[in-house]
Design goal:
heterodimer; A: 282 residues; mainly alpha; B: 425 residues; 5-stranded mixed beta sheet; 48% helix; globular
Chain lengths: 282, 425
């Protein structure tokens, strides 16, 4: 029994140590600092009271939730569609997969700069729209289109990445299941509904959870392109925390906001796990 | 088995070679590395670093560049966490008060005599907090108006006068910019530093609307006066009327003028070198416009360098800072690739002399720069809350440029500023 514990420690120890030092410790530190009043230095809820009555912070929470509600299903639907497409026996399939995956190799900051130039009011995207007879769009300079532009940029990078997990999941589905349902006379939609989707539940759960967390932490495109504007329409919570900590020199508020973000992410991810498990996967 | 294979023998040989060359590497490491953080392009300080390293063979300057917008965050994150590896860093002069009050800058009172020898009272005042010096002043700055001769000729617009007493008003400029657009100019006008308080403050001062801050400690926002709203409406109208382009960052605006797409451009003298490289660009310079009924006013101040109080190599860092600030040769070498007026008196004379060689080509740039620095320059307010103020006001300018209602935007900015200031008062 002792030997088993030693083996467990040897194999799991480094990973657990990393989790403790790199994840748990900063989280504990954030909770501790968030409870310290910046002026009196005493424990209390003053930082939480301050941010929860701050219209900018509340607005940034709302923008973040709106962003998450749109971007996560959108990215997963597109990633799934691309995975199905590139799993089919298309000619030059390797080339298509590479092209879709290519943006992943470009850092988000670089793609933000490139898209920033592309989406300028006098930029090439509007040039293309004009050539098609469509009027120029303001994109990141308009409060109505800026968030959608950020969604476009992060999705351009994201969908190829999430697609690879789903392609791997698709290739794990036994052909025998398709053969069986075909004998029962199922059409393409029924094959997808009753074989593909249930069999993909595991990789889909991973993609849903990881994608949700990643999208809560979107920062670079916002910082580079809009700095939360116009009119706070893209002020996602990470940008707000960055502003509190580094522009306003108010780390206490930033710690409290970080704790709220952690609680939010844990609650949503917990809910996602629960919903995905309802289908019977353990 | 690997060790006996040809690859293995190669590996042993490379280890042996590395061991033999170890003394050389050790010698290299004996050099003291001074880390210098700035937002400037590397070529700005390259001549100074090369000269300094020739004179101080035991010191290596490690140059680290971050984007302008991230410099404050970097400084707050690194010095705030006690980073000893950062030795000196560029300080935007209005931030001295805030950085010194947070103990992010080492006091430099012992350098007073040397600094007073090379810089005027105003420059030393600008790098002081509570009467003590906290940074070495490097440069000052001004803004001039560039105009594209070809675009103005095409629209039959007379070239603006270079005489500061006969400068254009902003109202005249808007009319001429629209006239140039009607004759084919893609854009009539652009500021270089769009949405930045550094450049836009002069508009509000020229109109008589004040700096936007009030109180002894300048920690109360004052953005909702009629003057602030009227100037903000004017700024907004430039973009509503498509006289100036939206969606372009301060880093991208000089290229628009350089590419011949803008008739009038208000920017810093540091653009001259870049514009001179464009053979097809025929341009001239004039003083910055002002509001009719108001007073001429131009942006000023620039970068200084400060020492990290936690620096492990403060002595060496000070040697380099003295070289680029106090030594006339060193000071001048920082403006060779970056033509900003040096604060150092001796280097300034050389700078103006050098700038005057451009007079016959682009107009009397040297006398315009000298005049504006002496008569119309308005510094930004010194306050503990400068970074908060600049962050919020720059975002408000950006919203206004993108079409948001000026009154509502300024009111929201004022609320947020006063709320944030209350945390640091």
């Amino acid at each position: 029994m002792n030997q088993k514990w030693v083996q467990l420690f040897i194999f799991l120890g480094p990973a657990l140590l990393c989790v403790a030092v790199l994840r748990l410790w900063p989280a504990v530190l954030a909770i501790h600092e968030s409870l310290m009043d910046p002026i009196s230095g005493k424990y209390g809820l003053s930082n939480y009271l301050y941010i929860l009555t701050d219209p900018e912070f509340i607005a940034s929470l709302k923008v973040t939730l709106l962003f998450s509600i749109i971007v996560n299903p959108l990215q997963i639907a597109i990633a799934l569609a691309l995975a199905l497409l590139t799993n089919a026996a298309l000619p030059l399939i390797g080339l298509w997969r590479t092209l879709i995956l290519l943006p992943v190799a470009i850092p988000q900051s670089v793609s933000a700069v490139v898209w920033g130039v592309g989406l300028r009011p006098d930029g090439p995207v509007n040039g293309l729209l004009n050539a098609l007879g469509i009027a120029s769009q303001p994109f990141v300079t308009s409060p109505d289109q800026a968030l959608a532009s950020i969604i476009l940029i992060v999705s351009w990078v994201g969908v190829g990445y999430w697609m690879t997990f789903l392609v791997a999941g698709l290739q794990d589905i036994p052909q025998a299941l398709y053969d069986a349902i075909e004998i029962d006379g199922a059409n393409a939609w029924q094959k997808f509904r009753y074989v593909t989707l249930p069999q993909l539940r595991r990789p889909l759960t991973f993609v849903l959870v990881a994608n949700t967390v990643a999208n809560f932490l979107v920062f670079a495109p916002v910082q580079i392109l809009t700095k939360g504007g116009p009119q706070d329409s893209t002020n996602l919570i990470m940008e707000e925390i960055y502003t509190q900590a580094f522009s306003f020199g108010d780390p206490s508020s930033a710690y409290a906001s970080t704790v709220i973000l952690m609680i939010l992410v844990i609650a949503i991810v917990g809910l996602q796990f629960k919903l995905m498990q309802k289908g019977g996967v353990r | 088995m690997l060790i006996f294979s040809p690859k293995g023998i190669g590996a042993i040989l490379s280890v042996a070679v590395a061991a033999l060359t170890q003394p050389c590497a050790a010698q290299e490491q004996a050099k003291t590395t001074v880390t210098f953080l700035t937002a400037e392009r590397p070529d700005t300080f390259a001549p100074a670093i090369a000269q300094f390293e020739r004179q101080h063979k035991n010191i290596h300057i490690e140059y680290q560049q971050v984007p302008f917008d991230n410099l404050s965050a970097q400084v707050a994150a690194r010095i705030g966490s006690g980073d000893k590896d950062l030795d000196l860093y560029a300080v935007d002069v209005p931030r001295v008060t805030e950085l010194a009050s947070k103990s992010y800058l080492a006091p430099l009172e012992d350098e007073r005599a040397k600094l007073e020898n090379i810089a005027g009272d105003k420059a030393i005042q600008a790098v002081s907090y509570q009467g003590k010096i906290y940074a070495y002043p490097l440069w000052t700055s001004t803004q001039i108006m560039y105009f594209n001769r070809d675009l103005l000729n095409a629209a039959h617009i007379p070239f603006p006068s270079a005489d500061p007493a006969r400068r254009l008003t902003w109202q005249q400029l808007v009319g001429q910019a629209q006239q140039a657009q009607q004759a084919g100019a893609p854009w009539g006008f652009s500021f270089e530093q769009v949405d930045r308080y550094y450049q836009l403050l002069s508009l509000y001062i020229s109109y008589g609307a004040g700096s936007g801050l009030k109180g002894n400690d300048a920690l109360t926002a004052d953005l909702t006066s009629g003057g602030w709203q009227q100037v903000s409406d004017w700024y907004r109208s430039l973009y509503i009327k498509h006289i100036a382009p939206r969606g372009v960052t301060p880093e991208q605006t000089p290229d628009l003028f350089g590419d011949g797409k803008v008739a009038f451009f208000v920017g810093g003298p540091w653009n001259i070198g870049r514009f001179n490289k464009v053979a097809s660009l025929h341009y001239g310079v004039a003083p910055m416009p002002y509001f009719a009924g108001g007073s001429p006013s131009t942006p000023t101040d620039s970068w200084a360098v400060g020492i990290n109080p936690h620096s492990a190599h403060a002595r060496e860092a000070k040697l380099f800072a003295e070289f680029i600030s106090i030594d006339p040769e060193g000071s001048y070498s920082t403006v060779i690739n970056n033509p900003l007026p040096p604060v150092n008196n001796v280097a300034f004379k050389r700078y103006i002399g050098n700038l005057s060689t451009m007079d016959s080509k682009i107009g009397p740039i040297s006398s315009i720069v000298s005049y504006e620095l002496a008569h119309t320059a308005v510094s930004r307010p010194c306050t503990k809350g400068y970074v908060i103020f600049e962050t919020i006001i720059d975002r408000a300018f950006s919203d206004i440029r993108n079409g948001a209602d000026s009154k509502q935007t300024l009111e929201r900015a004022q609320l947020r500023l006063n709320r944030s200031f209350a945390r640091i008062k």
